[in-house]
Specification:
alpha+beta, Alpha-Beta Plaits, 2 domains, 8-stranded mixed beta sheet, 4-stranded antiparallel beta sheet, globular, binds adenosine-5'-diphosphate
Length: 330
């Protein structure tokens, strides 16, 4: 068997990806910017079955063998890799997320990026990170950004070749922290992939898209200056704009839980009444990501842990790009 294992960090978007211009290729409606996470990651082993013993791809996620229905998205991605290598081999894939799956911590991003890196390496395909970014994007748009470490932008582009991510700064540029307040580890009912298709039904989508280039510019400036007071307001604004689009799409997507609002109110209180420089963003799920400088993180973590609605806090700094590991999960 040709086998390889990759570990890839998830990422938290500062300026979000929501809605697609081309649903087949996952070409987005705008650029987006994220930070790759060091401590929320996926490890995936891909073993290609060159002797034809397997009838179907076999997928084990977080220790659970996945049904054919739950493996469909994986098989479609493996089909892209098979096409590139010109093989028809099936694969055995084992993957582990070290954080809750499908709850707004971008498991699809690290999951499909790790599958791409391990799958291509095991096939002996030598592709650079830009090419791998384009391949990962096909199955999860935000996966395109996890192909790079640190602070990353995904260029909207207009084709399969140019809708790719590129690094803005390495992880050493700014020691930020993302503290994920897990208010629910349950899997969301509608995947982000399906949610993207609804964006165009929202009357608020055009408003967000009309403003997003200005917000991207502000985010680039805040990153360049390592200025949390500049970064914070714009990431909150874009997260609220994205969730407004979600809530007003048809059918309406309401990812928030009571605990979500509890954390948002607490963050505003800590900031406005006590001057703690911490800001929130929320992906497609109920869990809230708090962004702050490394030196504020212990204080923010203590406060979060004391909130009744917070089940668990996952703390992560900026991480590096994908790693190939010598130890396999199979
Ligand atoms: P999230 O907010 O966690 O990204 P999504 O609904 O966007 O949630 O994506 C979750 C889906 O991504 C899962 O249902 C599964 O299909 C896929 N996924 C999650 N983790 C992995 C993984 N490690 N390997 C392959 N696919 C994964």
């Amino acid at each position: 068997m040709s086998i390889a294992t990759a570990r890839v960090g998830s990422n938290i978007a500062f300026i979000k990806y929501w809605g697609v211009a081309d649903a087949t290729l996952n070409i987005p409606l705008s650029n987006s910017i994220s930070m790759t996470l060091a401590d929320a990651h996926t490890t995936t082993t891909v073993a290609w079955d060159e002797i034809g013993a397997l009838e179907n791809d076999a997928f084990v996620l977080d220790g659970v063998a996945q049904s054919p229905a739950r493996s469909q998205r994986l098989t479609r991605h493996l089909d892209i890799l098979r096409g590139l290598a010109g093989v028809t081999w099936r694969a055995r894939v084992t993957s582990e997320n070290n954080f809750p799956t499908a709850s707004g911590i971008a498991s699809s991003a690290s999951g499909f990026a790790a599958l791409t890196v391990a799958g291509c390496a095991a096939l002996g395909l030598e592709l650079d990170a830009t090419r791998l970014s384009a391949i990962a994007r096909r199955s999860s748009g935000s996966a395109s950004r996890s192909l790079f470490g640190g602070f990353v932008e995904w260029a909207q582009g207009s084709s399969d070749a140019d809708s790719v991510a590129f690094p803005l700064y390495g992880p050493e540029h700014w020691d930020l922290r993302d503290l994920v307040a897990v208010v629910s580890g349950a899997e969301k009912k509608l995947s982000s992939a399906d949610g993207h298709l609804l964006a165009k039904s929202s009357p608020l989508l055009d408003g967000r898209i009309a403003h997003v280039n200005g917000w991207l510019a502000e985010t680039r400036r805040a990153l360049a200056e390592r200025d949390i007071q500049r970064l914070g307001p714009v990431i909150e604004l874009d997260a609220l704009a994205m969730h407004s689009v979600m809530m007003t799409s048809s059918p309406s997507l309401l990812y928030w839980q009571p605990g979500t609002l509890d954390v948002l109110q607490a963050v505003r209180r800590w900031r406005e009444e006590e001057g703690l420089a911490v800001y929130f963003t929320i992906d497609a799920g109920p869990n809230v990501h708090l962004i702050c400088a490394a030196e504020s993180a212990p204080e923010v973590e203590t406060r979060l842990a004391a909130l009744r609605s917070v089940e668990r806090v996952i703390v992560s700094g900026p991480g590096r790009g994908p790693q190939l590991l010598d130890e396999h999960l199979i």
